[in-house]
Amino acid sequence: MKKSDRIEAWLDTLHPPSARSGELHRCYLGYFDCFNRQLYYEAHDVLEHLWLPERGGCNDAFYKGLIQLAGAFVHLKKQYERPEHPKDGRRLRPASRLFRLAEENLARYPARYCSLDLERLRRFCESHSQAIERSGFRVNPWCPERAPRLTLEGE
Question: Average of pLDDT values for 93-107?
């Protein structure tokens, strides 16, 4: 089974908010569902499934920024789970870089875009990147009990 087929089948198992289903793409809604369940790699894959065919379009940097945000949390989660591991223990620097890239890509859009408060999300990316950098790349701001949740307007 191809990756795209697996993603489509997996999207069928998700339960996005029904009120939003008609106006927002199911991959976009699936991203938030996965992200809020701390399935960051899956969130990345689901949104990438939407982004790849549309690269270069008006939402190119927007989707890329959200994918980078999920990628940053993939790094943070892995580092949290295995801080002494030779590879996973060194994931704070790439996480910080992805927060910066996400912030940069999302800055190309207005404060509110696609039912998302981007101004707040950009500040979030900046604060996480700064916290990691100020710690000398030694303190991970993520833990499962305080994992962030992303909400769309109207939810």
Answer: 98
